[in-house]
Structures are given as C-alpha cells and as structure tokens.
C-alpha cells in the first residue's frame, strides 16, 4: 500500500529514467532555521544539487501525504508554518502522522525511511543525531543511529552535531555495524568544525568508491546504510577551540531551563546561534551546501553503476 506517497514530476521522471536523485530532509527547514532564511536555504540546496547533475527530493509529510520532492507552494507552506503545527517525524511517529492526515517534517531517520521507500540511495543533510551528553542516565540516543544500521541509504553529513557526545556516538555506530567514512581526511569532522579530535574508522577520497561500497554492501546482503562525514569547508568553519566553550554554555543553559527530549536540539541550535552572533547559522548553511555537492557526486556514481541516466 503506497497510495499515500506523492512525487513531483521532476522526481517521478528521474525515478523512471534511473537518473541520480539526492534526498533532503525537512526538519532543517521547519526546526533548523528561521523564516525566510530556511526557505532561501532550501531553494539554494536544491539548486546546488541540480547544478551538479542530480535531482533534489526534499521529503516531508503534508496533510497525511508523504511528499517525495516539494513544489514551490509546498516548500513555502512548510517554511512559513509555525513549529507547533508541524510534527517532527522520526521512525516512531511517521505512520501516525500519515494516518491522522497531519503535516510533519522528516528527521534523518524518517527521511531515510521515505527515501528507501522511493528507491533513493543517497541523502544529504547537515548533521546526524547521536548519543546526547549524559545519556548514561537519560538514555537519550537519537533514532538516527538505529536507522543507519537497518536502512540502506548513504547519508552525507558534516558529522554528528557537536552538541552531542561524539565518542559515545562513534562507539554506538561501531557496535551497530555502521560504516563511518570520513571524506578526504583521517579525522572525524564535528559539524561546525573540521576536526573533532577523533580518528575516523574509515577514510575515502573518491565519490565513486563510496557509491561502489554501498553497492557491495547490498550485494553482500548487509543491512543498513553508510555514513559519510564530509568536513565543512575551511573558510566556513568555526574552529573546535572556539565552538567548544559556546556549546558547553548552551548545554548548561538547557539544563538550567530543564529542556528535554525532542526540544533539546532546537533549543541548543538557537542558543548557539545567539552566542555566536549568527556565525553558527552561516556555517550551517555552508556545510549543508557542501554536503549537497558531495551527495550529488555520489548519486551520479551510483546511477552509473546501475546503468541509469
């Protein structure tokens, strides 16, 4: 039963011809940036993917319909709708949102599910969720990690968000058997910063090799996807020494205000935006654009392996 899925004509044509497609999440629009910067960024990212030879497919649920690709009207509606009216969707609540005819923005996990359902192999995002600091008592671990272990999509990001416990996140990914591939460097990037102080388990420098690794995983019948950690461009990064104390202050503020569960990440990103005088948002946009470019290159290689357009 897939009659709850709609494709834009552009995405439908790409699927039919085997052309490269790159999935994009929608929580970055609804919960990641204020209006109208969110709309401008979403348009820019889609344009960047097209400029590099692939078709963008921003994914969301609108009035109970899973949209694979958003037209201009849907994009504007999503970008300009209050957060309180938009569900933040992960694996647990995706089906409920559809069943109730509601509108929701897809997180990394939900985007992976929908992309896989649509036959899309590559997904570009900003940063993934992971193990939150203090998880040894709160058990707050993002569903993104489990999703990476079971859904066969290559996820291109700038690393796990720097607000997280990065060593524990890396450890959980290793336990779950998720390939963590640092693109072009040995160290794992940390979202706003190129370096995290952690050595990446794997390194690849060629988008073609990344696409081939995904194809071989499928041939070996290994479940799950692969995580490609793409460092933010040098001229856009906030160095680790600079962002570290700011993240610590934001975390302390969240604890003081008793922010918890799904509200934690949006609060922290907003607080860090304030503490950096907007520099974190500028860096966020640039890293998303950078991931879109790499995602398009991997999608092109994946399409060539399939013999697609």
Q: What is the helical fraction, as a range of percent?
A: 40-55%
H/I helix tally: 13
Total number of β-strand segments? 11
What is the CATH C-level name? Alpha Beta
Function: Catalyzes the reversible cleavage of pseudouridine 5'-phosphate (PsiMP) to ribose 5-phosphate and uracil. Functions biologically in the cleavage direction, as part of a pseudouridine degradation pathway.
Keywords: Glycosidase, Hydrolase, Lyase, Manganese, Metal-binding
GO molecular function, one term: metal ion binding
GO biological process, one term: nucleobase catabolic process
What's the gist of this structure?
Belongs to the pseudouridine-5'-phosphate glycosidase family. This protein has helices at 9-17, 27-30, 37-51, 72-79, 94-99, 108-117, 135-138, 143-150, 166-175, 207-219, 240-256, 264-275, 279-306; strands at 5-7, 21-24, 55-62, 65-68, 87-89, 104-106, 122-124, 154-157, 180-183, 202-204, 226-229.
